[in-house]
Amino acid sequence: MNVTSGKIDGSGVTLRKMEASDLLRVLEIESSCYGSESWPPAEFIERLNNAKATILLAEKAGQIAGFVIYSRNWFKLHLENVAVCPFFRRAGIARLMVSRVIADLPAQKRRRVVLEVRKSNLAAQSCYEQLGFRKTGEIAGYYWTDREDALVMEYRC
User: Fold this and answer.
1) Domain range spanning residue 43?
2) CA-based angle 143:34:129, to the nearest 5?
3) N or C: which end of the chain has fewer CB within 10 A?
């Protein structure tokens, strides 16, 4: 992947690839965001060892503030998981991470990013729409814990 470390804006946020030593903090953030719906540790380990997957961490003030996971599938990038520690929310970190995924499209030789988002998660939908994503469909009962529907959203360049 062609993502580099370093500041990505004036807010002091940096992005870097996840390392195995980051797993405990990433799991803490996942749990604080998703509770009983959190991915198990094995999912993160699988992505770390998968050449088609990328986990980027956002750091602010020396702390891991969030992460984004995406994978290269067929003719698209699939945005699988976005999480920001509650303490760091409302600072544009999710927007910055998703923007970096979009910026990685040419290096990945892809022209679109696809994601699923809870139908009730209006804040995330708004963020994605502001970045250029459009709703393209729905998946009934997508979320296993409560069977909530998901909206499918897509970014095309």
Assistant:
1) 6-112
2) 70
3) C
